UniProtKB/TrEMBL annotation, chains A, B:
Catalyzes the NADPH-dependent formation of L-aspartate-semialdehyde (L-ASA) by the reductive dephosphorylation of L-aspartyl-4-phosphate. Its EC number is 1.2.1.11. This is Aspartate-semialdehyde dehydrogenase. It comes from Streptomyces colonosanans. Pathway: Amino-acid biosynthesis; L-lysine biosynthesis via DAP pathway; (S)-tetrahydrodipicolinate from L-aspartate: step 2/4; Amino-acid biosynthesis; L-threonine biosynthesis; L-threonine from L-aspartate: step 2/5; Amino-acid biosynthesis; L-methionine biosynthesis via de novo pathway; L-homoserine from L-aspartate: step 2/3.
Length: 355, 355
């Protein structure tokens, strides 16, 4: 390793994006284990200055030189950029922790959630570790803990996904649309929202203000969306259950940040709510927030800006003693993206220290 | 019957509410089969004038006299008002079509959706016919058609419920909250929405603007909400499947009108998407709107103000050839309440004509 002062060099590739901003925030809050932190983005953003660890750092353009002398590189960039540049960084000796979809299902790339499968990070033939999609991450820590005890057998998920899952453009689109609908009677007659919002619906196929849109990502076979397939495929890989039956419907909602999901999970044998609640309450990275009598259940407004997954509405299916119903909620930019990537990068750095 | 000019007298009890307003709209659009249409509401609203069939009609207060000489009475009032006054109307000879929760599970009260179980309306020992909760109605016409062909065996539902399900107070709360959050950066830091909205969250336990709230109704046993139990119990009764396994999670979303639901439905044997789409496309009261390649899937913005249930995202479960995934969307004030109640009332009136 090329560490200065005995500390490894970290590159943040995609530092100027919505997730990049949260990465810098988290790096500034966590124990400082890094030597240099190099901020890298598209040539368009080069020269901008961003704050990390209380210092202004100038952003450099993504090129071969920028990736030289890096020990760990966290990537949050579009898939095609990751596909091109992550192998370059790895060839130059960096361990890449990639948050794009480019490598997640590559059998030579581990897909890592530190609370669920930390050891997978150590076997990385391509020098690349992938981190899951934000929707998968919103539930997988909770499911990992329940699976370890009960043995997961079937999974049905419906999502309530925040617009920031589509980056800054998603946030801008919702805010722009909200400014058009607030203070109006819109949302009560056919087509009124669509006319008010016009053709420019940002990264979403329909208006998202005062609406919900049952689509995320691109079209896959048999009518499934790419986001739905990611949740299925990634959950199977992380949990080590390649045959797990999974059905997912992904829906965008007018929330800025924090994804929510309803989960119906069937296990090997009978489960009890009491034991499920104990597991959730004691699992690392998970908070049990479940007392409807006191008005306690997680909502995005409670959860935004926090690290853990919040879990509420824990019920046993009335007609199946082997199944649980849950409502989970997590900040899609933190644990759903920047935090998980940072946790994995930090675990790699700790291994450097240990070796 | 006490019909004038050979036409029956209709009472609309709860005429000044959000659902009442839609009832008057629908009565003005449908073929005019009624003699007198009497508008009834709380004493507080008596004397107001509302338009129906192009005429202004004065609202009278709910009392014994108001219910005299009525052939059919449509009730949309709180449960306790229905519990008190529906039997009074029935005792005076009216057939009551009640949209409250007061009588739905009464074994002597049929629970009727004309497209699914029309004949049940004719057996009404108490003179009362109940109509289902708006969330049940958003999916049950579609499920009835699929059940008739495939035989339903298991049902998992997650809802995306509009604020108008909580009446005018729900709409007012969302609009008020939207005026506070539009044009701000709210929704991105912990607790900011809650501070901005304050303690008055209207009929909802949490802020609903820029948020989703996994709670609707009151607390029932084992952590279930009353709304979730309604969807389970009413679906079983309407479909005539008293043992059907059903699991539901109800979530409120910042949409003014039109409930959406994700549905995972398992059937007796293997299903095909082609046949499912044929059934949906030809079922009365249902529209198939399902071509993701062309950006076609139902959203509340498409569906508000229309009569049918719109169905999209029709997929067969990848890991279970007997299960279908659907996204359904319906106007909770129309088919979800006013329209279904009016359809039932009209079918009763037609029976008068036939007898």
């Amino acid at each position: 390793m090329t560490a200065r002062d005995g500390k490894p060099t970290l590159a943040v590739v995609g530092a100027t994006g919505a997730v990049g901003a949260v990465m810098l925030q988290i790096l500034s809050q966590h124990a400082d284990i890094w030597g240099e932190i190099r901020l890298i983005a598209s040539p368009r953003s080069a020269g901008r200055k961003l704050a990390v660890r209380g210092e202004e750092v100038e952003v450099v353009a993504l090129d071969e030189e920028a990736l030289s002398g890096v020990d760990v590189a966290m990537f949050d960039v579009p898939d095609e950029i990751a596909r091109q540049w992550a192998p370059v960084a790895a060839a130059k000796g960096a361990v890449v922790v990639d948050n794009s979809g480019a490598f997640r299902m590559d059998p030579d790339v581990p897909l890592v959630v530190p609370e669920v499968n930390p050891h997978a990070a150590r076997v990385r033939p391509r020098g690349i570790i992938a981190t899951p999609n934000c929707t998968t991450l919103s539930m997988i820590v909770t499911l990992g803990a329940l699976h370890a005890e009960f043995g997961l057998r079937e999974l049905f998920v419906s999502s309530y996904q925040a617009v920031s899952g589509a980056g800054r453009a998603g946030i801008d689109a919702l805010r722009q649309q909200l400014s058009l609908v607030a203070g109006t009677e819109l949302g009560t007659s056919p087509g009124d929202l669509r006319r008010a919002v016009g053709d420019d619906t940002g990264p979403f196929p329909e208006p998202v203000a005062l609406n919900v849109v049952p689509w995320a990502g691109s079209l896959r076979e048999d009518g499934w969306s790419s986001e739905e397939m990611k949740v299925r495929d990634e959950s199977r890989k992380i949990l080590g259950l390649p045959e797990l039956p999974v059905a997912v419907t992904c829906v965008r909602v007018p929330v800025v940040t924090a994804h929510s999901l309803t989960v119906h999970a069937r296990f090997e044998g009978e489960v009890t709510v009491d034991r499920a609640r104990e597991i959730i309450a004691t699992a690392p990275g998970v908070v049990l927030f479940d007392n409807p009598a006191a008005g306690e259940f997680p909502t995005p407004a409670d959860v935004v800006g926090t690290d853990p997954t919040w879990v509420g509405r824990v019920r046993r299916a009335l007609d199946d003693p082997t199944a649980l119903e849950l409502f989970v909620c997590g900040d899609n930019l933190r644990k759903g993206a920047a935090l998980n990537t940072t946790q994995v990068a930090e675990s790699v750095a700790r291994d450097f220290g240990a070796s």
